[in-house]
Design goal:
Blueprint lengths: L6 E5 L2 E5 L5 H19 L9 H18 L10 H4 L2 H13 L20 E2 L4 E3 L7 H4 L8 E3 L10
Antiparallel strand pairs: 1-2, 3-4, 4-5
Helix pairs in contact: 1-2, 1-4, 2-4
Length: about 160
């Protein structure tokens, strides 16, 4: 079994980690970084109000990159450092704030995706993130955060 390097991003002072290689988490972090750039430029992001179209554009850009690069990492690794670079996510944020349409790859049948998220503190206590702190979750938060105690994680060094 190969373990990939984890990647991290911050949004509104909270750190988020995702598995590397070609996981969905890479594109989740890309979207968070772009939304953080927007938040720093314009203030709090309102995903269900004035910023709904802008958030949708950020997510569409991340989905387009996922569709372009998502593959078996042994055959076609995603350029994670480039996709998470400040300059790349800045272009996504600028495109979203300008209202520029996103060119998607082909027309896919709508289906759905899942991203698992878990937060942990320095003492190893982990929980599901609070939907009120993360705009992407506000639309479909299933339940309030749960907290659990766990040991140290391989992800502690990524942030």
């Amino acid at each position: 079994m190969d373990l990939s390097r984890p990647y991290g991003a911050r949004y509104d002072g909270v750190g988020y980690l995702a598995a590397g290689d070609n996981s969905q988490g890479l594109y989740f972090l890309q979207a968070l970084k772009a939304l953080e750039a927007v938040r720093l430029d314009r203030g709090p992001v309102d995903p269900l109000g004035r910023d709904a179209g802008m958030v949708a554009t950020v997510l569409a850009c991340a989905a387009a990159d996922r569709d372009r690069y998502g593959a078996d990492p042994q055959w076609s690794p995603a350029p994670a450092e480039e996709l998470l670079s400040d300059s790349y996510v800045r272009r996504i944020a600028d495109q979203a704030m300008a209202g520029t349409p996103v060119e998607l790859l082909g027309q896919r049948k709508a289906s759905g995706d899942t991203v698992a998220m878990v937060a942990a503190d320095a003492q190893g206590t982990w929980s599901l993130p609070d939907p009120e702190r993360l705009p992407l979750l506000r639309c479909r938060a299933a339940r309030p955060p749960h907290r659990h105690r766990a040991g140290p994680s391989i992800y502690e060094e990524a942030m």
